[in-house]
Amino acid sequence: MSARYLRRRVVNWVNLSMSVLGTLFGLFWLVWLLWTLVERGVRWLGPELFTQNTPPPLAPGGFANAIVGSILITALGVIVGTPIGILAATWLAEFSRRSRLAAVIRFVNDILLSAPSIVIGVFIYGVVVARFGHFSGWAGGLALAIIMLPVVLRTTEDMLKLVPDQMREAAAALGAPRWRVTVMVVYRAALGGIITGVLLGVARISGETAPLLFTALNNQFWSTDMNRPIANLPVMIFQFAMSPYDNWQHLAWAAALLITLAILALSLFARLVIRSRSFVK
Predict the structure, then answer these.
(1) How many other β-carbons are positioned within 10 Å of the β-carbon of residue 178?
(2) What is the pTM of this model?
(3) Is pLDDT above 90 for 155?
(4) pLDDT tens, 174-205?
(5) What is the enclosing helix (H) or strand (E) of 6?
(6) What residues have CB less than 8 Å from 178, skipping those under 6 apart?
(7) Pair 73, 212: CB distance under 8 Å
(8) By 3-state DSSP, what share of the chain in percent is helix, strand and coil, each rounded to 5?
(9) What is the pLDDT of residues 77-131, one digit of tens each?
(10) Rounded distance, CA 246 to CA 203, Å?
(11) Radius of gyration over alpha carbons of the chain, in Å?
(12) What is the rounded CA–CA span in Å between residue 142 and residue 209?
């Protein structure tokens, strides 16, 4: 065995060992976090959580109003952020791939992608809440849409670029116009990745607390009026977990577990979608 071969084996073993140790270190904290969440939250899950509103201190209750409010705000964020993100990504990937303007947009999008969510919340507070004079569900949904937009844009653009140019050229050779090639060929080939990006965006905004503190705030009562402060799970968890009341802390653990399970279900669904061959046939 030569010295060079032995050195390569040692370097390979060291790198492999460090990679395994790094993976195990990350998994340890992840498993610990999930175990703590399940241990402290699963015992408080019950049907009353989905049928009763958030209670006053030391009184029984649930978080039905917070679930409905979160669904409304998240749905608004998805409805606003998804089409804008997909259309912008389509323009970047299909019609202006190498232009200077596209490079600038990608740069701004990357900054927005890594920007702290509280900054976006403060921005919406200054633009919407301060202008109209009150917190509202509309402001919360708009903040979540801005957070979701760069996620959808980046993932959609990457998925569209993965579609081979030969497919576009073959469709164009048959006489199909550019827009039909994009819609009927490129979108269909990249549909699995696009849906995955949207689901990842939904998972990202489902647990955001900071922007909602500045926009939608919270509401102790049942309300579906998007013109007023509306209850939502992330802010409820923040307020209840910081309270000195045991029942509020128990509800916070249960709500945190519920959000985690919902995000886990979305992630598993995204995995199933991306592995589905029906979208790329």
Answers:
(1) 12
(2) 0.86
(3) yes
(4) 888 988 999 999 998 898 888 888 988 898 89
(5) helix 3-41
(6) 94, 95, 172
(7) yes
(8) 80, 0, 20
(9) 999 999 999 999 999 999 988 889 999 999 999 999 888 999 999 999 999 999 9
(10) 28
(11) 23
(12) 14
